[in-house]
């Protein structure tokens, strides 16, 4: 690029970045994804590095972006509020550490404080003589917005500092500061964010793209009573100007802040060995999915304040700290179309067909749209740019449209009135969000899903059968209900594409073996609503045979530990239907074992005497498969966490069970940890 071209590109980049900053920081409503934004910023940095003469002090690389909005009084920060330099890999972190060593001298003794980077917005809280007097946003780093009245409504922000009487820590100042500016993050928990968006959508209001924008948008309200109604939280991670006491390290500062009554994250750590810093970051990245809030990375800080001052600031980032960024979890892309899927129980769910987009290194083409109301309330239209979230191992879903990016070509979408697979009119029970195809016995789409479920690993585990085969057999009319699998003849499969003699023999042998699976797995395979592995085992243990279960009355079922009224009602309802009774008889006639006598194949005794509780979504195993695995290795699975629980196995979006486990100090495993216990990995 020639010099004028470079200058022009730099100008373009700055203009684009400023425009995106305005939507992000002032309106709290981004119009591009962070990845797109970061790419522009990286390009600008690279051009400026190659042409330092073109750097201007107002370039977005040189100062914190964001302009204080006019509805707030302005606050001049006595000490600028900075951003953080980014690292994406271990190599980046090592390069940062080397630079620090170079600047401080190779023989310097360095301690590091590692803190989670909770994704919210930075604020500064000023306390004079122990009382909260002013709170400000970061703004452009020099001038922020006065949001004191709004901050006063947040419960976790103390209005007066705690007296230090009860604290006897020789490393901490014994007095209160005459003046202290406490810096930290206002954030919103993931579950609160989702509830807030649902509430806003139901009221026809604009939703937020992510928890960070939700926190910023909720704090930056003209009317503090709106802020008060939002579930905002605060945690403190540093200080600005301090008078009357001297703080000499980040670690001491955090403990002092805690003593003064500020919430400080429990997971902050101090290390002197950089290898431990790296290990801790890795450990955290793995825990990310189990946290109740969004953490977009880890912040690593040089502990010693004198060393911090020596290192100083470059542009908008302190040299003494760095943010290790975790892979992205959301992106923006075009919604090309909406299709619907018919599930095993007839529930019809909308599915977003997306312009392929990378999220955290994975290409996402489809995402859930939950249900009809979700689409209608959020006014999601075909052709919209949408925010797609892919957190952990949960199915990616559409958060909402990017309204500011519409050009008028978007089309509203109507939920179908009839089942796309069988043409029956769709029905919706009052109070339910889901539309259903109630043509249970005829609908081919439901049948395919039922067959898929029946043959899955947690049910009858028929190797060689999967979605494709289920679709094929249903389409050819070879399978009209799940029992038909046991009546398949080799000659029916001969000549089908991909079905050679060997494959046919293997498949039929696998089907034959499935006649003798333990009863609870047959019950799981039937797909009774609310009956998974745990309930199925409880039924078998209590009643012993399928006939006894089938003929049990509601009250009898409710007596069984682990079977509540809803589950009991669902079981009674299932077996009251003549088509289900007929199916059972057909299975019986095919020689499928229906009493509890079959011995489960024990794989090992690795988990003997251990009790497990499963929570959240695991990356590869379904709930049934995980239970089955645990049981086949001698363990037990129960539904609720107690002191008797040996392990909680937690996946993405784990809820109160995980919290309970942490409270009781019960070890928590992820899927890999479970497999390791069994020796499978
Ligand atoms: N999509 C868009 O249009 C758009 C526009 C502007 C910025 N952005 C995104 O915003 C980010 C840049 O924002 P930024 O300048 O606020 O930087 P940043 O969020 O990457 O890091 C700095 C911030 O981290 C926060 N933080 C959390 N925990 C902390 C801790 N323990 N110690 C210190 N700080 C902590 C503070 O609020 C601090 O201001 C980029 O990732 C960019 O993608 C996106
Ligand atoms: Zn149908």
Automatic annotation (TrEMBL):
Amino acids binding Zn(2+): 419, 422, 437, 443
Cofactor dependency: Mg(2+); Mn(2+)
UniProt-annotated catalytic positions: 117
Keyword Manganese: yes
Binding-site residues, NAD(+): 34-38, 83-84, 115, 138, 185, 301, 325
Source organism, top-level taxon: Bacteria
Purpose: DNA ligase that catalyzes the formation of phosphodiester linkages between 5'-phosphoryl and 3'-hydroxyl groups in double-stranded DNA using NAD as a coenzyme and as the energy source for the reaction. It is essential for DNA replication and repair of damaged DNA.
Protein name: DNA ligase
């Amino acid at each position: 690029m020639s010099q004028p071209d470079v200058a022009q590109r730099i100008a373009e980049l700055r203009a684009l970045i400023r425009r995106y900053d305005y939507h992000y920081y002032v309106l709290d409503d981004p119009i591009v994804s962070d990845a797109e934004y970061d790419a522009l910023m990286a390009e600008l940095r690279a051009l400026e590095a190659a042409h330092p003469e073109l750097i201007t002090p107002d370039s977005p690389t040189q100062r914190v972006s964001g302009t204080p909005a006019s509805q707030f009084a302005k606050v001049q920060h006595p000490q600028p509020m900075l951003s953080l330099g980014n690292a994406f890999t271990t190599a980046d972190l090592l390069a940062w550490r080397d630079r620090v060593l170079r600047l401080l001298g190779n023989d310097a003794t360095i301690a590091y404080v590692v803190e989670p980077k909770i994704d919210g917005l930075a604020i500064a809280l000023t306390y004079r003589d122990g009382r909260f007097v002013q709170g400000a946003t970061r703004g452009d780093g020099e001038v922020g917005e006065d949001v004191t009245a709004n901050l006063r409504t947040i419960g976790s922000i103390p209005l007066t500092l705690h007296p230090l009487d009860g604290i006897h820590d020789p490393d901490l100042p014994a007095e209160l500061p005459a003046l202290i500016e406490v810096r930290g993050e206002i954030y919103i928990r993931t579950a609160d964010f989702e509830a807030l968006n649902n509430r806003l959508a139901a009221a026809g209001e604009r939703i937020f793209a992510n928890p960070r924008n939700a926190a910023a948008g909720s704090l930056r309200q003209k009317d503090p009573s709106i802020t008060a109604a939002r579930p905002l939280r605060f945690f403190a991670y540093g200080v600005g100007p301090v008078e009357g006491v001297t703080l000499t390290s980040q670690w001491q500062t955090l403990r002092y802040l805690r003593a003064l009554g500020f919430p400080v994250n429990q997971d902050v750590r101090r290390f002197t060995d950089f290898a431990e810093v790296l290990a801790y970051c890795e450990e955290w990245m793995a825990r990310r999915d189990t946290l109740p809030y969004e953490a977009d990375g880890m912040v690593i800080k040089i502990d010693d304040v004198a060393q911090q001052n020596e290192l100083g600031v470059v542009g908008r980032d302190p040299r003494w700290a760095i943010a290790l960024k975790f892979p992205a979890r959301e992106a923006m892309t075009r919604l090309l179309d909406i299709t619907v899927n018919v599930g095993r129980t007839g529930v019809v769910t909308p599915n977003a067909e997306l312009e392929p987009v990378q999220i955290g290194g994975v290409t996402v083409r489809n995402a859930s749209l939950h249900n009809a109301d979700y689409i209608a309330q959020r006014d999601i239209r075909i052709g919209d740019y949408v925010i797609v979230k892919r957190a952990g191992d949960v199915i990616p879903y559409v958060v909402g449209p990017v309204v500011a990016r519409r050009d008028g070509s978007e089309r509203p979408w109507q939920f179908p009135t009839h089942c796309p697979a069988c043409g029956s009119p769709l029905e919706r029970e009052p109070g339910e969000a889901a539309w259903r195809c109630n043509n249970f016995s005829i609908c081919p789409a439901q049948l395919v899903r039922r067959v898929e479920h029946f043959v899955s690993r947690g049910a009858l585990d028929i190797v060689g059968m999967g979605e494709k085969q289920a679709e094929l057999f249903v389409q050819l009319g070879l399978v009209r209900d799940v029992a038909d699998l046991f009546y398949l003849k080799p000659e029916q499969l001969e000549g089908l594409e991909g079905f050679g003699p060997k494959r046919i023999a293997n498949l039929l042998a696998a089907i034959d073996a499935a006649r003798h699976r333990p009863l609870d797995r047959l019950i799981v395979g039937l797909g009774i609503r609310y009956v998974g592995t745990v309930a199925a085992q409880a039924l078998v243990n209590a009643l012993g045979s399928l006939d006894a279960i089938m003929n049990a009355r509601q009250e009898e079922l409710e007596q069984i530990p682990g079977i509540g009224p809803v589950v009991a009602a669902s079981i009674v309802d299932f077996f009251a239907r003549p088509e289900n009774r007929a199916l059972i008889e057909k299975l019986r006639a095919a020689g499928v074992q229906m009493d509890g006598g079959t011995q489960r194949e024990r794989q090992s005794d690795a988990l003997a005497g251990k009790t497990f509780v499963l929570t959240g979504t695991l990356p590869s195993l379904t709930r049934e498969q995980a239970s089955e695995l645990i049981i086949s290795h001698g363990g037990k699975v129960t539904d609720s966490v107690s002191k008797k629980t040996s392990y909680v196995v937690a996946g993405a979006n784990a809820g109160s069970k995980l919290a309970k486990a942490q409270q009781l100090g019960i070890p928590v495993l992820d899927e890999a940890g479970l497999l390791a216990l069994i020796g499978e990995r």
